[in-house]
Amino acid sequence: MSTDTTGGDEERRESFWAWGWADRLPSDEERRELKSRIEGMLGFPERPLLDLPELSDVDLPPAAVEPPEDLACEWTTAKRDRVTHTYGSAYRDLVRGFHCRFDDAPDVVAYPEGESGVRAVLEWAADANVAVVPYGGGTSVVGGVECGGKGYAGVCSLDMGRMDDVREVDEHSRAARIRGGATGPEIRAQLADHDLQLRHYPQSYEFSTFGGWVATRAGGHFATRYTHIDDFVESVRAVTPAGTLETRRLPASGAGPDPNRFLLGSEGAFGVVTEGWARVQPRPPYRANATVRFDDYWDAVAACREVVQARLTPANCRLLDANEAMLNEVAFDGSSVLLLGFESTDSLPPIEADLERAVEIAESHGGRLSEGPATEDRTAADDADEAGAGDGDGAEGEDGDAGEWRDSFVEAPYMFNSLVSMGVLVDTFETAVTWDQFPALHDAIQERVTDAMQEACGAGFLSCRFTHAYEDGPAPYYTLLAPADVGRELEQWRTVKEAASDTLMEYGATITHHHAVGRVHRDHYHEEVPESFLEALRSMKRTLDPEGIMNPGALL
Ligand SMILES: Cc1cc2nc3c(=O)[nH]c(=O)nc-3n(C[C@H](O)[C@H](O)[C@H](O)COP(=O)(O)OP(=O)(O)OC[C@H]3O[C@@H](n4cnc5c(N)ncnc54)[C@H](O)[C@@H]3O)c2cc1C
Question: Which tens digit of pLDDT belongs to each residue from 85-103?
């Protein structure tokens, strides 16, 4: 049945073009302040302050298809719903949204409340040759939810937002059954009744969903150990056009290829992740933190490697290069900064000792302790003190450098909105590579991406941090800013993005450590994996999705 999703006047709405809530869009005063900071700090030419777009400026073609009125799932063809389901949340999405370009809007948006609704949509879509795009929080940065629908009668975005609950908690085994559309804060609030947490904190935590995390193999913000959602997933259940697929709940298994891997990273191309069991844990109240500064970046890299290779498993082991430290207002003296944080559910002494050893290693590589070591016992703290996306880096409750870093980390996506509205190209790309390859890769990225920004935009700024650190290599995450010509932003972005992606491939790195493949990374993903593996993936798709209606163009 069709539904009216316009909501009452009181309903808090997400922006139709930008990251996050519409009521958090920047004021003109905030934008002026940012503009002068960007021009001053980065030396960019004067940036224009463009008017923010209105939904009434958007023209949409009429919907090409409509489901039957008696479809056993609510759906709509309303303009706001179609517009807000057209793109994810990457720079190129924000730019197109800002310029009111929604040419590839889906025709229909469906809102299932349960698996029967999902099945009804898939059955209708298979009969009517309609492409179905599973939609979680729409925070994809790789074109995961946009689908032109070429060769199809139309496109249906299947919004999982109403399947947002934690259905069951097994406190004994410490696992929870979570439905696909539950966002980070929704999961957190429901697990709080059990004094448990999932503790998977991607930067997009506020809006992204459990199903989206599984489908994209999302990375959280613990630097070691629990890095991807994969590490938390016990079992997964999905509705595919060929039927329902559910894996067995197991703490571990050595029985052949892992069926969870059919769905982890499937990006909506095989079916809809409706729910899964995930490992949960109590909040770790004991914390130990320190900050170490280095004059030389490569000394800092060596220290970081030695810390993880000593198997100290810090929750936070974030290495900021000098540009990243400056951008996030952590250091302005040209030093690279290593933020170290340990946490424990059990007691302080072991993590105090681990931190002490990590600092000792850092100092042996020329590091200067600039903050800490500090310890915290938050056993008495209320869980609500930590609520919100502010805990997304696993460093909640911290002051000083780590707190500065965390605040800027949480605010960054909102700042991206402002930057787009003043003609600044702002994007991130990330990867993982072995330690032996990292220096050559990093140097090549610095040179080629900076050259590409120079060529396309006349200037540019590049910074790097490690989001995760493994014993055999880091996961570097690059942020780039460049002055863009309004109207030519996508062309300029493409030049820079190609330089970055081609360099990752040439130096043996992965096209993505956690941002997923989608449509933007698809060709490079195909280059990265063996051809026979791709053939097997294609045949798996044919088995689970014989009509090829599931998110065509993503992944495959
Ligand atoms: C500001 C910002 C910060 C980010 N930070 C991180 C980060 O720290 N770590 C990280 O890993 N990623 C990050 N991302 C990328 C993005 O948030 C992740 O890829 C996230 O997992 C997507 O979840 P979602 O619910 O928003 O999915 P969507 O964006 O809605 O969809 C992503 C893909 O998954 C598919 N999909 C969604 N739900 C389902 C489902 N239930 N069943 C089947 N397929 C589904 C979609 O079809 C699409 O292909 C960030 C993005 C932004 C904009």
Answer: 999 999 999 999 999 999 9
- Residue 402 to residues 94, 202, 317, 332, 347: CA-CA distances in angstroms? 29, 17, 11, 15, 21
Q: What is the pLDDT of residue 72?
A: 98
Distance separating alpha carbons of residues 56 and 393, to the nearest angstrom: 37
Contacts of 375 (CB under 8 A, 6+ apart): 286, 287, 288, 289, 348, 351, 352
Q: How confident is the model at residue 392 (pLDDT cuts 50, 70, 90)?
A: very low
Closest-lying ligand 1 atom to the alpha carbon of residue 238: 42
> Which top CATH class is 166-279?
alpha beta
DSSP 8-class letter at 431 = -
Domain ranges of the chain: 52-159, 166-279, 286-377
pLDDT in tens, 428-470: 999 999 999 999 999 999 999 999 999 999 999 999 999 999 9
Which residues are CB-contacts of 27 (< 8 A; sequence separation ≥ 6)? none
Percent of the chain whose pLDDT exceeds 70:
94
Query: Which region holds residue 526: left if phi is over 0, alpha if psi is between -120 and 50, else beta?
Result: alpha
SS3 305: helix
Q: Return the DSSP state at 390.
A: G
Let me know how many helices (H) and strands (E) the chain has, helices first. 15, 16
Q: Which helix (H) or strand (E) holds 506?
A: helix 489-506
**CA-518 nearest atom, ligand 1:** 49
Amino acid at 361: I
∠ CA 440-140-553 to the nearest 5 degrees?
90
Give a three-class secondary structure readout of 15-30: CCCCCCEHHHCCCHHH
- Tell me, yes or no, if the pTM score tops 0.85: yes
Quick one: tokens of 325?
């430290």
* Ligand 1, atom 44, residue with closest C-alpha: 268
Assigned token pair, 479: 């942020």
* H or E element, residue 482: strand 473-483
Q: Letter for the amino acid at 471?
A: E
Does domain 286-377 correspond to CATH entry 1.20.1090.10?
no
Residue 178, SS3 per DSSP: strand
pLDDT digits over 466-488, tens only?
Answer: 999 999 999 999 999 999 999 99
For 227, other C-beta atoms within 10 Å of its C-beta total: 22
When the candidates are 3.30.43.10, 3.30.56.70, 3.40.50.620, 2.60.120.10, the CATH number that belongs to 52-159 is: 3.30.43.10
Q: So what's the pLDDT on residue 12?
A: 87
Q: What is the pLDDT of residues 194-231, one digit of tens each?
A: 999 999 999 999 999 999 999 999 999 899 999 999 99
Give residue ranges with CB within 6 A of ligand 1.
19, 88-89, 133-141, 144-145, 160, 180, 202-204, 208-209, 211-213, 215-216, 218-219, 267-268, 272-273, 413, 514-516, 518, 551, 554
3-state class of 288 per DSSP?
Answer: strand
Q: How big is the chain by its Cα radius of gyration, in Å?
A: 23
